[in-house]
């Protein structure tokens, strides 16, 4: 099982040092959050909390994940980066493909795109994109981006996007992985159908086991069960080496953690120390070999 470190709520001026230390102590990747803006009033409930409230405020620091990946990639050589997850629905697929391809090249193929639709109507409407039919639009966006990132001269004529022959260079020398987020049946089908992996929000061990089982069955239906696939998890009720072993046994391949989660405002040195302690206990201890 691999380990990724989330930088959720970390101040921007800490990101470079967090990445350098994460690489030094053996983390596999950094999971990069995405949020375009904080609207003062939300018109719909946030889907991942019991009461629909947001877990962050207007002052919570959230850097653009693509820019963050470029900055952290410049000071590391092995650490990977992926958005967790980028809200596609309010963006343009051609502009985003240009940015993703650039980050993939600048990091020497150490970047993957975690994708979701987006939950807030304001993010769509204030960026000039309809909220209606957002799922179908995102499906087409993924198709467009994969096509363009392939590096050939291509054209596309779909329901939402239409363009004649074009090419973006340089293309990444390896395909950019797409990890699909979401817990709904539609999201799981999308992940099984077109994703290189699935990423969870906060879930219990039993919820993860049930979802991984559903995804495995869906991938078999789509004839993709022999292909590599990541199961990225944020688990809220399994801890310690026994807990990590349990998650690996149910199929989790990438455990997303934030060792300072109980102290998001901790000083940078405390966060760096927590990365080292976590790595000593779980990454360097060799528990997976026992």
Automatic annotation (TrEMBL):
Entries under InterPro entries matching the protein: Lucif-like_OxRdtase_Rv2161c (IPR019921), Luciferase-like_dom (IPR011251), Luciferase-like_sf (IPR036661), SsuD_RutA_monooxygenase (IPR050172)
Domain Luciferase-like: 11-231
Record flagged with keyword S-adenosyl-L-methionine: no
Protein name: LLM class F420-dependent oxidoreductase
Keyword set includes Oxidoreductase: yes
Molecular function terms from GO: alkanesulfonate monooxygenase activity
GO BP, one annotated term: alkanesulfonate catabolic process
Source organism (scientific name): Mycobacterium fragae
PANTHER family assigned to the protein according to its UniProt record, in alphabetical order: ALKANESULFONATE MONOOXYGENASE, ALKANESULFONATE MONOOXYGENASE-RELATED
Record's keyword terms, sorted: Flavoprotein, FMN, Monooxygenase, Oxidoreductase
């Amino acid at each position: 099982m691999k380990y990724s470190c989330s930088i959720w709520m970390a101040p921007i001026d800490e990101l470079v040092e967090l990445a350098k230390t994460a690489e030094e102590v053996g983390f596999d990747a950094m999971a990069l959050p995405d949020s375009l803006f904080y609207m003062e009033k939300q018109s719909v409930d946030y889907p991942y909390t019991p009461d629909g409230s947001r877990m962050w405020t207007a002052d919570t620091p959230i850097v653009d994940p693509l820019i963050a990946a470029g900055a952290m990639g410049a000071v590391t050589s092995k650490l990977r980066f992926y958005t967790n997850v980028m809200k596609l629905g309010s963006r343009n697929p051609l502009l985003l493909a240009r940015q993703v391809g650039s980050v993939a090249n600048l990091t020497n193929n150490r970047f993957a795109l975690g994708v979701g639709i987006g939950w807030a109507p304001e993010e769509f409407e204030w960026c000039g994109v309809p909220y209606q039919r957002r799922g179908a639009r995102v499906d087409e966006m993924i198709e467009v981006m994969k096509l363009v990132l392939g590096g050939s001269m291509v054209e596309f004529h779909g329901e939402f996007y239409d363009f004649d022959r074009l090419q973006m260079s340089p293309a990444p020398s390896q395909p950019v992985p797409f990890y699909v987020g979401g817990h709904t049946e539609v999201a799981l089908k999308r992940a099984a159908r077109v994703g290189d992996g699935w990423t969870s929000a906060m879930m219990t061990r039993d919820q993860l086991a049930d979802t991984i089982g559903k995804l495995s069955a869906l991938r078999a239906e789509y004839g993709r069960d022999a292909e590599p696939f990541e199961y990225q998890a944020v688990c809220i009720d399994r801890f310690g080496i026994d807990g990590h072993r349990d998650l690996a046994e149910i199929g989790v391949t990438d455990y997303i953690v934030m060792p300072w989660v109980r102290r998001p405002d901790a000083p940078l040195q405390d966060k760096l120390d927590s990365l080292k302690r976590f790595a000593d206990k779980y990454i360097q201890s060799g528990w997976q070999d026992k």
